[in-house]
Design goal:
The complex is a heterodimer of chains A (141) and B (396). Chain A is an alpha+beta fold and 141 residues long. The longest helix of chain A is centred in the last third of the chain and has 23 residues. Chain B contains twelve helices and twelve strands. The chains are: A alpha+beta (141), B alpha/beta (396). The interface between A and B is medium-sized, with 28 and 24 residues.
């Protein structure tokens, strides 16, 4: 028993040493779908009032499906990685499915986020939902 | 092992090998309590006394004026709480009891706030100009009948600006007010002599000049009224009671001696490296904003804001490429309040978010600096491209 807990400890320490998961680092250093969709069907923004970070997402829809989502983020590593991974998660889904994506989906797609960074995932989700609502409103108009 | 370039010497410095050796020897060979009167105790006492002389000599002080503490934060707390406790405020006197500046370290700022909230201490906060300098006339204007203490730092840890503490000290003297300065960024790095500087209390921190963490000192000029914060066995003449951290104190003493010996040469060398960073960043990174005073700044400090970037993103990106730097707005707690210092010098919130501090040290080389200058521009560029519309697109 003692041996097992001794052996487990260095492992736990190694995890703690890395502030961000490999997936989050990858999305931060090579963000996917940066920019804006040309002539988007919907555009939405969200800010994190706790820190002033901001994300804007634009989407293109075809037959009720998200065919393209692009983002711009002014913010920290978690904010950038969250928006980047969410644009990937949204692509190919129906608008309803994409709107159902939550911060938990973003966090698990990134292999976790540091403690107290949940707000960054929430901001990405907020921007995507706003873009999808915008698309719905424009479609009705 | 990847090559790392450490450029965060304002946060902490690596322990000098000679200092580490001296401390290890104490831990191995000196078991005594300095308060014991038998041989082991006397030996420990002698080491503490020597360290006290070393620290005093480096500042032009008398050894009796040095109080060892657990670091800069405790020294600041002892100075502020101790002086205000010793001077029981006259309830009828007007004006603030304590005068500080808006760019103090949290050890001073939060102590003042705590006293304001819980001990009815009135605090006046003097602002700074765009370079982070306090105007001594503003300090003079802030002083009132009730004012017992002025606490204004010497060198700012974030933006490197050096305050005119000689002039502020003269104001304090004229008005009969005790003057404390947090000098943890300057003692051991720049000349600091209490025989010529009109200061009464000075906070010092070993790990800022290649000593160990967890030990510092407060210089208390003879005749300064100060009460203790903690009670107990009466060590340090009752001003900071508790069994002495003998190895740490020996480390502080030797680090201070070595730092003083190397001080002028190091300051000169580091200033050159610092200027290389300042010029290199200006030349290679568009729209970089220098923070702090252009000339009246710590010799090792280069600090900037890069609009369109965010501090944590900069730090992580540079960390991935092997550089250790810091920011006044690192969003590690999920709440990026840009630092109070950056806001106090009048920066827009969004600009202040993209702050970066680079501080060189003894082991920094020209090639370290050049490697940093090569790594930084593409990182700033990349983060900016994620955050904002490219100019060509917005012009369309």
């Amino acid at each position: 028993m003692i041996e097992r807990s001794e052996a487990a400890r260095p492992e736990a320490r190694r995890e703690q040493q890395d502030l961000y998961s490999a997936a989050a680092v990858d999305h931060f250093t090579s963000p996917r779908n940066v920019g804006g969709v040309e002539e988007p069907d919907g555009k939405g923004s969200d800010t994190n009032p706790a820190c002033g970070d901001r994300t804007t997402i634009t989407v293109r829809l075809r037959d009720g499906r998200v065919t393209e989502a692009r983002f711009r983020t002014f913010g920290c590593v978690a904010a950038i990685a969250s928006a980047s991974v969410l644009t990937e998660l949204a692509a190919g889904r129906t608008a309803a499915e994409a709107r159902a994506l939550g911060p938990g989906d973003v966090i698990s797609a990134l292999g976790g986020l540091p403690e107290r960074k949940e707000g960054c995932a929430l901001m990405a989700v907020g921007a995507l939902r706003a873009a999808l609502v915008d698309a719905q409103v424009r479609a009705r108009a | 092992m990847e090559r790392r370039v450490y450029l965060d010497h304002a946060a902490t410095t690596p322990v000098d090998p000679e200092v580490a050796e001296a401390m290890a020897r104490v831990l191995r060979e000196v078991p005594g309590n300095p308060s014991s009167i038998y041989a082991e105790g006397r030996r420990a006492r002698a080491l503490v006394d020597t360290a006290r002389e070393e620290v005093a000599a480096a500042m032009g002080a008398d050894p009796s004026e040095i109080v060892f503490t657990s670091g800069g934060t405790e020294a600041d707390n002892l100075a502020i709480r101790g002086v205000l406790k010793a001077h029981r405020p006259d309830p009828d006197a007007s004006g603030p009891h304590l005068v500080i500046s808006s760019i103090e370290h949290h050890a001073v700022l939060d102590t003042a706030e705590d006293l304001e909230r819980h001990a009815h201490v009135r605090v006046a906060v003097v602002g700074v100009d765009g370079t982070g300098r306090v105007d001594p006339r503003d300090v003079a204007d802030a002083i009132g009948e009730a004012t017992r203490l002025i606490s204004i730092m010497h060198g700012n840890n974030e933006i490197g600006t050096i305050q005119p503490i000689d002039e502020i000290g003269r104001v304090a003297r004229e008005r009969g007010v005790t003057f404390h300065t947090d000098a943890v960024q300057t003692v051991g790095i720049l000349p600091f002599d209490v025989r010529t500087l009109p200061v009464d209390l000075v906070s010092v921190n070993a790990h800022k000049f290649y000593g160990p963490k967890g030990v510092g000192a407060l210089y208390v000029r003879k005749g300064t009224r100060i009460a203790t914060m903690q009670t107990g066995g009466g060590q340090e003449k009752g001003r900071r009671t508790g069994t002495e951290n003998v190895a740490g104190i020996v480390g502080l003493g030797s680090a201070m001696r070595i730092a003083t010996e190397r001080r002028d040469g190091e300051a000169e060398k580091q200033r050159r490296l610092r200027d290389r960073i300042l010029e290199g960043v200006r030349a290679r990174v568009p729209a970089a904003v220098l923070t702090g005073h252009p000339t009246e700044r710590l010799p090792n400090n280069a600090s900037f804001c890069f609009p369109g970037t965010q501090g944590e993103a900069l730090i992580v990106a540079l960390d991935l490429e092997g550089f250790s730097v810091s920011s006044g707005s690192a969003c590690t707690s999920g709440k990026t309040e840009p630092s109070h210092v950056l806001l106090a010098i009048g920066l827009e919130r969004e600009v202040a978010q993209g702050s970066l501090r680079v501080t060189v040290g003894r082991d920094t080389t020209e090639s370290d600096v050049d490697a940093f200058l090569a790594a930084l521009p593409p990182i700033v560029e990349r983060i900016r491209s994620v955050s904002a519309e490219p100019l060509s697109a917005s012009a369309r």
